[in-house]
Design brief:
Elements (H helix, E strand, L loop, with lengths): L8 H10 L5 E3 L10 E3 L8 H17 L7 H5 L1
Antiparallel strand pairs: 1-2
Length: 77
Amino acid sequence: MPLARHKEIDAVGRFLFDNGIYATLAAYPLVPRPEVGFRIQITAANTDAEIEQLIDVLGLLVNVFDLQPARKSERAA
């Protein structure tokens, strides 16, 4: 999920980690500034409770940090 403000990547990573979510961070200069964000991978090994926790934490995250709006091509997928 790309962030609206690339400089918040460390704070976003800490927020996710502190709330029990492990995410892979893609920070500048590893990716271009407009692509700075995080990735979360879900597998069949995740429990329903873990998925619910992820949904809850992401709901909190969007109240604290701004994400980039989805592009048209991403909404259609």
